[in-house]
Amino acid sequence: MSCSQLCFNVRVLLLVFILSISSVVAWASPFSHKAGNAAETVPLQANWRFRQVGKESWTPATVPGCVHTDLLAAGQIPDPLYRDNELRLQWIGKADWEYETSFTLPPATLQRAHLDLVLQGLDTYAEVLLNGVSILQANNMFREWRLAAKQHLRTGENRLLIRFRSPLREVADLPRKQGYELYSGNDEQSMRVVGDQGPPLSPYTRKAPYQYGWDWGPRFVTAGVWQPVYIEAWDEARLTNLHVVQQVVTPQAAQLAVEVEYDAARSQAATLLLETRGPDGQLVGTALEQALTLTPGRHTTTAEVRLNTPQLWYPAGYGAQPLYTVTARLVQQGQPLNATTRRIGLRTLQVRREPDQYGKSFEFVVNGIPVFAKGANWIPADIFPTRVTAPRYRQLLQAAKDCHMNMIRVWGGGIYEQDAFYDTCDELGLLVWQDFMFACTFYPGDDAFMTNVREEATHQVRRLRDHPSLALWVGNNENEIAWQDWGISGKLGAHKNEVWSNYLQLFRDLLPAVVRKQDPSRLYWSSSPSADFEDKAGSQRNGDMHYWEVWAGTAPLSDYEKQVPRFMSEYGFQSFPELKSVQQFALPADYDIASPVMKEHQRSAAGNPRLLEYLRRDYKEPKDFASFLYVSQVLQAQAIKIAAEHLRRNRPRVMGSLYWQLNDCWGVASWSSIDYYGRWKALQYYAKRFYEPVLVSPHEEGDLVRVYVVSDRTVAVPATLTVRLLDVTGRTLFRQATTLQVQPLSSQVYFEIPRKKLLKGHNQKQVVLSCAVETDGKTLSTNTYYFASPKEAVLPPSQVTTQWRPQPDGTYQVTMHSKALARQVYLSLEDGSDGFFTDNYFDLLPGETKVVSFRSTAPTSVAALQQALVVRTLADAF
Fold first, then answer.
1. Is Hydrolase there in the keyword field (predicted)?
2. Which of 78, 412, 519, 557 has the most other CB atoms within 10 Å of its CB?
C-alpha cells in the first residue's frame, strides 16, 4: 500500500469515527442541537389530545393512532370488535374530529434555516393548522406530507391542530357532481355505514378499503394521525433519498450504482462519504469519498461501488438472507450535514415469461433458480393498523416461514404495510408480491385524482424499492377481471368507454410510468389476475389466476384439480376460528352460527349457508357448536390441501400457489389460516405439510393410484419412498418400499398401481393409504390418502393416549399413541391455559407413536397440562 493510500484510508476511517460519535450524541435527545450544521429530527409524539368537532372537552390521544383506539383507551366506547358493538359505533365515522398538540422548540433549533413539518400519514381528509394558520389540506391516507414551516413557528409554545373531516360526508356528493355513479364490483366493500343508502363512495377516496367493509371486515370508518409526525431542521443541505441499483450481481462480484438525492439551499462545496458494511457489521471494501458541488434545489448524484465475492440473498428454503448496509453521509468542511442508510440484499430477480407448450410461463427466478412460489395472501393484521407492532409482524411472518412459505402477497384492498413488515420479510426470505392499493372498484379519471395517485405511488415505490424481498408491483386486485366477467361494463351505460379509458390511464399508463422511473428493475403487472393485456384476465395459459368457483360458486372441491394456471395467486375456503378465540369476542349465549352476534362476525351473507352446504357434502352433522368450529377448520384445510398439492404436482407448468389468506384483522369467520388472536387454524398446520420442500402426494388418476414426489431442492435427494395400505385397526394390507433419487426442482411420479390391485377387494371405507419419503433416517414428508369421504368412512372411537415430559428449554414433549386410526387429532387446553403445539390436526396411524412439542404462554406443570389437555378426533365430532 502506498503512503498516499494509507493516509487516505486513515483520514476516511477517522472521519467515519467522528461522524458515528456525533450521530450517537445527536440522537441522545430529540431536542439536542446537532454538531455543526447537521440536520436534526424533532418527533412530535407527546401532549396530543383529541375531541369531536363542536365539543368542548379534550381527551388525551396517542399518535400514531386513530379515533377509535383513542376513544377506546379513554373508556368512551366499548371494544368495537366485541359482540355486535360496532353497530352502535357508526356515529364515529360520520363525525368530524380534531387532534392537537403543543410543543416548544429550543432557540437553536428555531434558528435553523429550514424547519420542515413532516406528517407521514393522515387518515384521510384533514386540514392542518400551525399556530392558527392553515398550511395543508390533505386527502390521501397513503401519502407523506412535507411542509416548510419555519415562518409559522415561534419562540415558546407552538400549537399544531389537525382537523379531520368525515370521509362519508366529504365524498358523498362526488357521484352527483360527476354525473354518474362509479360502480363498485363488490358492493359489500363500498364505503357505507350500516343503515345508510346511496351510491358506493369507495372509488372516490384514497383510504384503505378494508376499514369499511368487504365480506370479512367490520364496518368502521375511522380517522386520525396514523403515522409519525416530526419536524426536520436543517441548514445547508439534507439527504432526501438513498437508492442502491444492483447493476450486476454474480457470485464473483456485485456492481452497484448508489443514487444519492439531496436538497441544497445554495451553491457550495461538500463531500459525499459512502460506506458499505456486510452482514457481520464490518466495513466491506473501502469507504468512498466523493467531492460534490451542491446547487440549489433537489438533485441526484451517483457513485459506483463494487463488492467482491458478495454473499447472495435467497428466498426462504433456497439459501441464507445476508443483508448489507449502505450509508451515505453528506459532509461540509469536516462537519456532518446529514446521513441516511439503506439495508439491501444482493440478488438477481426476474419474472420469467417465455412461450412454451402450455402458453406463456410465469415464474420468479432468483439468482438463476426458478422458484415455485409457496405462500399466502396478506391483509392488514388489525382493523386499526397502528395496533400492529413489529413483534406482531414477526409472529405472523415467522409462522409463514415456519410453514415453508417463500412469498406473501400484499393484497390491494388494505394498506401499504409499515417498514417493519418489509424489514421482516427481508430477514426471513419472504418474497413480497406488492399490490398498489386499488381493489374491485373503478376510479375517477380527473386530473386531481390522477395527480394524487401519482404522488402516492411515487412515495410508496421510493420507500420500498430497496427491499430485496420486494418481487413485483401489481396495479390492482381484480379490477380487470371485474370488467370482463362481473357485468360491470353493462351497468355504466353511456359512460362505459369513459370508465374503461380511466382504467387504462391509471393502470396501463400512470402506475407503470412511476415504476419505470423509480424502480425499473422490477416488473409491473397491471392487475391480479391478469395477462397484462396479452390475454383474458385469469387465463390458464398466460399470467396469474384467481379461482373462486370452489367456495363462491359452490363447485365441488375436486374442481380445484381442473385448474392448471401458470400461477395461482388467489384461492380460498372459509372456516370459523376455534372456540378459545370465539370466547374472546362472544358470550356462551352467542354460541350458535345463527345468533345475531355470530352473524355479525360472518360478513358474507352467503357464508354460513355455503359453509354448511360444503360441510354436509363430506361430513356428518357436528354434534355441538365446538365440534362445528373444529369440523369447519378441518374442511377448510382439506380443501386447500387438495388445491395446493395439485398445483405443486403440476410444476413447472404451474409455478405459484398463494392461498387466501394467511392472517385476519378481527375475530371473524374468514379464509385465514391464522386467526386474529394469533392461533393457528388447521389450515396453517396443513400448510406446514403441503408446503414442505420435499412433498409426497398420492393421487387417484383414472384407474391408477399415483404417488408423486415434488422437490424444491436444487440438488438430487437420495431417498426411500414407502407406500402402505392399512386398515383402521393397523393391519398392513399392502407395503412397498422404493429406493429413488428425487430430482431437483421437479414433480415426478415415483410409484403407481391400479386402484383395484391396491385395494384387493378391501372395504375402501375402512382403509388408509400412508406414504412417506425418508433419507438417512430422517422423514422428509408423510401423507395420508382416503378412498371414501369422511361422511362414509368408518371412524373408530378415539383411543389416543398422551404422555407429557418437560424439556430443558422450557417446552414440553407430548407423546401420543393410538391402537386404532385417529383422524384429525386436535390438541387443545381448555381450562384457560394457552400455548402452541408444533403440530396439530394430524392423522395418527394405528399402533404408531407421534411426538409434538408444546410451548406454554405461562408457567405451568406436567400435572396441570395433562389435566387441561383435551384430545379431539374426527370421530368425536359427530
1. yes
2. 412
Q: Are residues 17 and 65 in the same domain?
A: no
User: In Å, what is the CA distance from 794 to each residue of 308, 403, 821?
Assistant: 63, 31, 10
Q: Please list, in sequence order, all residues whose beta carbon lies within 8 angstroms of the beta carbon of residue 99, skipping any fewer than 6 positions away.
A: 48, 49, 50, 61, 63, 161, 162, 164, 224, 225
Maximum Cα–Cα distance for the chain, whole Å? 93
pLDDT in tens, 427-465: 999 999 999 999 998 999 999 999 999 999 999 999 999
Overall pTM > 0.70 = yes
**At 59, is the pLDDT very low, low, confident or very high (cuts 50, 70, 90)?**
very high
Q: Are residues 160 and 278 located together in one domain of the fold? A: no
Share the mean pLDDT of the chain: 93
User: H-helix or E-strand containing 394?
Assistant: helix 390-402
Nearest CA to 86 out of 199, 206, 222 is that of: 222
Q: Residue 210: which pLDDT band, with cuts at 50, 70 and 90?
A: confident
For residue 171, being part of any structural domain is answered with yes
For 87-97, write each residue's pLDDT tens digit.
Answer: 999 999 999 99
> Which amino acid appears at position 30 of this protein?
P
Among 1-15, 167-181, 402-416, 707-721, the range scoring the smallest mean pLDDT is: 1-15
Strands 373-378 and 656-659: parallel
**Catalytic hit among 98, 363, 478, 600:** 478
Would you give the DSSP letter of residue 219?
B
Query: The domain spanning residue 580 has which CATH number?
Result: 3.20.20.80
Distance of CA 359 to the CA centre of its chain: 30
Same-domain check for residues 254 and 194: no
Indicate whether 607 belongs to any domain. Answer: no
Is residue 31 over pLDDT 60?
no
CB distance 152 to 131 below 8 Å: yes
Task: Say which CATH number the domain at 304 has.
Answer: 2.60.40.10
Average pLDDT over residues 635-648: 98
Q: Does residue 118 belong to any structural domain of this protein? A: yes
User: Do 413 and 476 share a domain, yes or no?
Assistant: yes
Which residue bears the cell 391408477? 704
Residues 126 and 273 in one domain: no
Which of 177, 205, 230 is where one domain is finished?
A: 230
pLDDT tops 90 at residue 216: no
Region 722-727: mean pLDDT is 98
Within 644-744, strands assigned E span 656-659, 694-701, 704-711, 717-727, 732-742
Burial 399-421 (b: 16+ CB within 10 A, else e): bbbebbbbbbbbbbbbbbbbebb
Residue with cell string 370488467: 483
Beta-carbon-side half-sphere exposure of residue 638 (alpha carbons within 13 Å): 24
Q: State which residues form the domain around 100.
A: 41-230
- Domain holding 188: CATH number? 2.60.120.260
Alpha helices in 544-665 (DSSP H): 579-582, 596-600, 607-618, 625-649
Say how many C-beta atoms besides its own lie within 10 A of residue 580's C-beta: 18
Pairing of strands 229-234, 114-119: antiparallel
Annotation says 478 is catalytic: yes
**Do both 407 and 477 map to the same domain?**
yes
* Residue 751 belongs to some domain of the structure: no
148 burial via Cβ count (<10 Å: 0-12, 13-18, 19+): exposed
Could you tell me which residues come within 8 angstroms of residue 100 by beta carbon, excluding any fewer than 6 positions away?
48, 49, 50, 58, 159, 160, 161, 162
